[in-house]
């Protein structure tokens, strides 16, 4: 519903988006300057203030006047209300400000409308703030003075100037201001702002009504069903009949009537509006910023996370149309601005962040090889011509996004500069914009395979681990730091393991190094849970890192990391069938991709034996017998089970190298359900999550082994 107050004192009420016959009534004798909507007890009220000195309360459902107040002796210029009411009482209260330099407090109550009068002030009123907990109202005037009023009694406590006045205002809480504005001022907390612009032609005089949509506020308000309605204004109707039909039938949306045009508001508060014309696709031909703004708004507002009305199918069709079909349908189509979209590559709103990333990838994917090279070269050349540091940061961010989302697009000649730029965004002195820093952190992790040749990976990994352990870090940055560390570990697990092993091999072991190593072990646990398949080539190295944390002669690190190391061993055994632990003898056996077996002693934290080429193919599963004297190994590619003698001597030390006592052909072994094994994939890309459920390899007695799938 849109409510408009006019210069002749009338009010029009229009139901959006298709209401060609609005309700209109005469409310005041002169121009309406301010309006306020209040909903109480499920009833909608409208408060109006006018040049005729009156404040009036109306029922929106009946357009009947509920109350009229004539306490001001000048035009009523603005209303103030609580932005976030702290109680039901303040949800029904508001202040009015007049040219007579007074402030009046009202309550939505027919018997007791006026609660207090605060004035008159020596100069025109500039702003009104408050401290509701202490019961004070602060009225600032254009001369810089501040009047301090007690709200309960209406008594002026003091009038102050200078630093005292500025200190009071800086510590006071703002009130939401509603007034007729000569210049456009938008609230970051307001979903929709209605602006009336006086318009005149030779034929008639009529206002131009503008609606300013705050997409982030509409997205944040999960219960607001209006975001369906306002997508009627944004959606490009009339160019794809099947999609139009879906919007009408599934989402109950329809084209706006009367027709609309589009505009954009600059940082100075000035509005630029397209002249209405028959070409409904004109907004996609104006500028890259306009295209990016509309594409991001349309797709993000129909994201399934916002409302159940938008199914995954509906969202997918709208996304495909905006990103793939529309650019081909529009002559002289201007591609979306990547720098604008990059601002939302990291965003607190999931729908906006996901949409910006999808559109960026679609822009890159629609280009041919030459187009991609040209795109990268254009952005890369801007790094050397751009003087504004903020714009340079955005240029780096755009190139980093391209490199992380589509690594093959980025020429090697540009990687060094871009890598340094990303690191500068993360670690430069004084810090960069928090939002850009968070985005850069994710880009670093996602594109690590591209960046690692241009940086010191060992130093970087430990820097990130230290940063993650830094207290008082913002949650978005902490989350993305964790993600970056995990993605680096996933990309190159052996490098990651070597990096976290380096510091604890130093001669001097400090508390800080031990604490960093504990954090690193915790990340290993997350890697095992989230990306187990990436660790398959690194299992023997991973076991060595855990063992190094349990070295008996390094008491401090063993004491600190003991519990975490034990948990890691448990996770390994649970997740990977080619890792087996015998609790009584405290021995850990690890099978490798190259077919070798490695046995570790956890008591002494040493490597006992490595059996090279235990199998000609990779080891699939291991199992200790109950006494820990024999180790069974299985290779699905070789289709063979081998039993190794691992008896210890009387001192608990492995004497001779384990030897293979028996080997069984899987197909000829009765205890193996062969029909369940023949269809298993043995490719290197097989996921370890599924492997742990596919294989069951265990001893049932001293002489019996079972190999089966559940």
Structural descriptors:
elongated, five-stranded antiparallel sheet, 710 residues, 31 strands, 4 domains, single chain, 36% helix, alpha+beta, Methylamine Dehydrogenase, Chain H
Short description:
Helices cover 36% and strands 23% of the residues. The chain is α+β, with helices and mostly antiparallel strands and 710 residues long. It has 4 domains: 140 residues, YVTN repeat-like/Quinoprotein amine dehydrogenase (Methylamine Dehydrogenase, Chain H, 7 Propeller); 158 residues, no CATH class; 112 residues, no CATH class; 135 residues, Thrombin, subunit H (Beta Barrel).
Distance between the termini: 60 Å
Average pLDDT across residues? 83
Structural class by SSE content: alpha+beta
Query: Which shape, going by the Cα principal axes?
Result: elongated
What count of helical segments does DSSP give?
21
- Domains, number: 4
Could you state the oligomeric state of the chains shown? single chain
**Low-confidence spans: pLDDT under 50, at least 5 residues?**
200-204, 650-654, 668-692
- Note the beta-strand portion: 15-25%
- Radius of gyration, CA atoms, in whole angstroms: 35 Å
Helix content: 25-40%
- Count of DSSP E strands? 31
Largest sheet: 5 strands, antiparallel
Strand order of the largest sheet: 11-10-9-8-17
């Amino acid at each position: 519903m849109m409510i408009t107050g006019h210069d002749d004192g009338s009010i029009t009420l229009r139901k959006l988006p298709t209401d060609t016959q609005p309700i209109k009534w005469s409310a005041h004798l002169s121009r309406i300057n301010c309006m306020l909507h209040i909903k109480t007890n499920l009833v909608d009220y409208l408060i109006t203030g006018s040049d005729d000195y009156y404040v009036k309360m109306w029922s929106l459902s009946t357009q009947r006047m509920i109350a009229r107040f004539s306490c001001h002796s000048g035009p009523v210029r603005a209303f103030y209300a609580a932005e976030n009411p702290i109680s039901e009482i303040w949800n029904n209260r508001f202040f009015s400000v007049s040219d007579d330099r007074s402030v009046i407090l009202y309550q939505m109550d027919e018997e007791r409308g006026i609660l207090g009068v605060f004035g008159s002030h020596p100069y025109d009123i500039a702003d009104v703030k408050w401290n509701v907990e202490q019961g004070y109202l602060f009225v600032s005037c254009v001369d810089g003075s501040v009047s301090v009023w007690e709200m309960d009694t209406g008594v002026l406590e003091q009038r102050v100037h200078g630093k005292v006045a500025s200190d009071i205002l800086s510590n006071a809480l703002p009130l939401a201001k509603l007034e007729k504005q000569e210049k456009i001022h938008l609230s970051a907390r307001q979903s929709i702002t209605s602006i009336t612009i006086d318009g005149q032609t030779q034929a008639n005089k009529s206002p131009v009504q503008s609606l300013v949509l705050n997409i982030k506020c509409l997205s944040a308000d999960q219960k607001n069903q209006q975001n369906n309605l306002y997508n009627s204004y944004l959606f490009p109707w009339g160019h794809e009949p099947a999609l139009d039909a879906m919007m009408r039938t599934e989402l109950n949306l329809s084209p706006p009537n009367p027709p609309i045009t589009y505009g954009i508001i600059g940082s100075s508060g000035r509005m630029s509006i397209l002249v209405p014309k028959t070409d409904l696709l004109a907004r996609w031909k104006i500028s890259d910023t306009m295209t990016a703004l509309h594409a991001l708004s349309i797709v993000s507002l129909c994201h399934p996370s916002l409302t159940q009305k938008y199914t995954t199918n509906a969202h997918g069709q709208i996304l495909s149309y905006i990103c793939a079909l529309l650019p081909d349908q529009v002559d002289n189509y201007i591609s979306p601005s990547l720098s604008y979209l990059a601002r939302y590559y990291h965003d607190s709103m999931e729908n906006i962040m996901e949409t910006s990333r999808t559109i960026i990838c679609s822009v890159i994917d629609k280009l041919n090889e030459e187009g991609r090279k040209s795109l990268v070269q254009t952005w890369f050349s801007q790094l050397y011509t751009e003087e504004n540091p903020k714009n340079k940061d955005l240029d780096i961010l755009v190139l980093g996004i391209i490199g992380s989302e589509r690594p093959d697009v980025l020429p090697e000649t540009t990687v060094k500069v871009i890598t340094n730029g990303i690191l500068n965004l993360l670690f430069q002195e004084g810090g960069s914009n928090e939002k850009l820093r968070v985005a850069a952190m994710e880009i670093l992790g996602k594109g690590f395979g591209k960046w690692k040749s241009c940086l010191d990976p060992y130093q970087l990994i430990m820097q990130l681990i230290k940063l993650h352990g830094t207290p008082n870090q913002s949650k978005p940055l902490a989350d993305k730091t964790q993600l970056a560390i995990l993605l680096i570990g996933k990309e190159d697990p052996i490098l990651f393991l070597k990096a976290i092993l380096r510091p604890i091999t130093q001669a001097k072991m400090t508390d800080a190094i031990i604490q960093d190593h504990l954090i690193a072990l915790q990340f290993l646990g997350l890697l095992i849970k989230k990306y187990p398949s990436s660790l398959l080539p690194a299992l023997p190295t991973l076991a060595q890192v855990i063992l190094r944390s349990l070295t008996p002669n390094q008491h401090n690190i063993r004491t600190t990391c003991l519990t975490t190391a034990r948990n890691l061993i448990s996770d390994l055994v649970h997740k990977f069938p080619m890792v087996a632990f015998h609790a009584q003898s405290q021995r850990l056996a690890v099978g490798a991709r190259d077919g070798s077996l490695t046995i570790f002693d956890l008591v002494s934290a040493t490597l006992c034996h490595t059996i090279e080429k235990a199998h000609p193919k990779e080891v699939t599963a291991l199992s200790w017998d109950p006494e820990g004297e024999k180790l069974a190994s299985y290779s699905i590619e070789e289709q063979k089970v081998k039993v190794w003698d691992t008896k210890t001597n009387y001192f608990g030390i492995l004497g001779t190298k384990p030897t293979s006592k028996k080997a069984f052909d899987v197909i000829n072994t009765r205890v193996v359900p062969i029909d369940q094994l023949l269809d298993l994939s043995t490719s290197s890309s097989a996921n370890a999550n599924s492997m742990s459920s596919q294989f069951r390899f265990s001893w049932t007695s001293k002489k019996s082994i079972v190999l089966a799938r559940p």
